Amino acid sequence: MARQGNILLVDDDPSLRRLLALRLEGAGHNVESAESGAAALRALERFNADCVITDLRMDGMDGIDLLQRLSHDRPTLPVILLTAHGTIPEAVTATQRGALDFLSKPVDKDVLLARVDQALDQAGVAGGDWREVWRSRIVTRSPLMHRLLEEARLVAETDTSVLITGESGTGKEVLARALHDASPRANSAFVAINCGAMPEQLLESELFGHEKGAFTDAKQAQQGLFRSAEGGTVFLDEIGDMPLALQVKLLRVLQEREVRPVGAQRSLPVNVRVLSATHRDLSEAIEQQQFREDLYYRLAVVTLALPSLRERPEDVAPLARHFLDGIARRSGRRARVYAPDAMERLCRHDWPGNIRQLSNVVEQNVALTRGHVISPQSVDKALSGHGRRSATAATLQPLAEARDAFVRDYLIQLLRISEGNVARSARLAKRNRTEFYKLLNRHEVDPADYKR
Length: 452
Ligand SMILES: Nc1ncnc2c1ncn2[C@@H]1O[C@H](COP(=O)(O)OP(=O)(O)OP(=O)(O)O)[C@@H](O)[C@H]1O
Fold this sequence. Notes:
Pfam family, one: Sigma54_activat
Number of helices: 19
Domain Sigma-54 factor interaction: 138-367
Strand order of the largest sheet: 2-1-3-4-5
Helix content: 40-55%
InterPro entries: AAA+_ATPase (IPR003593), AAA_lid_NorR (IPR058031), CheY-like_superfamily (IPR011006), Homeodomain-like_sf (IPR009057), P-loop_NTPase (IPR027417), Sig_transdc_resp-reg_receiver (IPR001789), Sigma_54_int (IPR002078), Sigma_54_int_dom_ATP-bd_1 (IPR025662)
Domain Response regulatory: 6-120
Keywords: ATP-binding, DNA-binding, Nucleotide-binding, Phosphoprotein, Transcription, Transcription regulation
CATH architecture of the largest domain: 3-Layer(aba) Sandwich
Bound molecules: adenosine-5'-triphosphate
C-alpha cells in the first residue's frame, strides 16, 4: 500500500508550489506550502511534517540553511532538495550534509512520488500507519541502513536467531535492541552480555547460572542470564570470542532449549530468542578451528551486516548533531553547533572507530569549546589525538602539546567517572579543589558537560 504522509513544500515560486502540491495531493498526501525557509520553520511549529521538499535557491534562508537548521532541530526528518540546472554540485554537497535526496527541475511526476514514498519509508510512515518507535534510537539517513532496517523489522517478527556483523562501533548492540523492541518479545527482558570480556568459568555461570556451593565463591545460587531473560531476548555480543568449550554448551542450549546451571543435576527449560554479534570474520575463525561451524549455523539463521560509517558518510552530520543534543540535554545547556568547515572535516574523515569514535570526538570537541560554535581546529585536534598511536614524523605532536592532550584526556576521564563532580574528581586526582579548577580552566574542560 502506498504511503500517505504530511509533506511540507518550500519554494518561492508560487506556480511551482501549486503544481507540485496538486501532484502530491493527487497521490493522497497532505500538503502544506511555505514561500521561504523562515516560513517553513514557522509552519513546522504547527504542521507535523513527515518530509520536507525544499528549493535550493531562495532569498533569505535558502534550502541549504533550512537543511542545516532541520538537521539540527529535527535530525530524523527527511529533506529532499529541488535543484535547477547549475545547482546540482551544491545539491550533491548537501546530500553529504544530510539531505536525503535531490530532484532536478522540471520535476518528473513519477520520480517525485517515488522519492516521497522513499522519504516516508525513512520517516517510518508505513502504509498509512503512524511512525514506528522501535528504531527511534537509530539515527540514519543512509539508504543502505534503511534497507537493513527494513530486513530487521521483518525478521524481528519471528523467533529466528540473528547474527549481527560489523566493525567495532557500528551500532551492533543498538540494532539488537531495536530488533528486540520491534519483536513480540518487546515487553519482556533484553539481556546483553559481552562473551569476550570474562574468563570461561565466570561466563558459563553468568550465562547459565549456578547452584549454591557449585564452586568456591558460589555462596548463593544464581539463575543466570538465559533464565533471567525468560520470554525475552538474550544478546551475545562478541560471540566470536567465546571459548570453544563454552561454544559446545551454548549449542546444546540452543538445540534443546534447556539450560543446566553449573553444579545442577537437572536442566531447566528456557524460552528466549538469541541475537548475537561479532566484529570478527567468523568464516575465518571456523577455518582456524576457533569457532564451531554447527554453532555458527544455529546463530546465523539470518545475518544482518551493519555498514561501517565510511560506507554511509551521509550519517556523519546527523549523528554528530544527535550527540551534541545528547550532551546538551545531560548538562542542561544549549547545544553547541559545528562551524560549517568543522562539519566538513567531520564528514571527510574515514572513522576507523565508526560511530563510537565519532561520539568520542564530539564529546572531546564540546569539552574543548568555550563558546557556542565548534571550530575546525578543534576537530583537527580531536582527530589527530585519535590517530596518535599511528603518528609519523610529520604528524607527531611536540612534547608540550602531547602533555596538554594527555592532561586534558585525564581530566575528561575523571569527570566522566565522577559524573561532573569537581570535588570528587579533585580527590581522585589528589589535588586540592582550587588547583583542580585552575587545571580545568587552563584545559578548557567544563564539568557541566559530564553531569548526568
Ligand atoms: N545509528 C545510531 N544512531 C545513534 N547512535 C548510535 C547509532 N549507532 C551506534 N550508536 C551509538 O554508538 C555507540 C556504539 O554503538 P554500539 O555499542 O551499538 O556498537 P557496537 O557495534 O556494538 O560496538 P562494539 O563492536 O565495540 O561492541 C553507542 O554509544 C551507540 O549508542
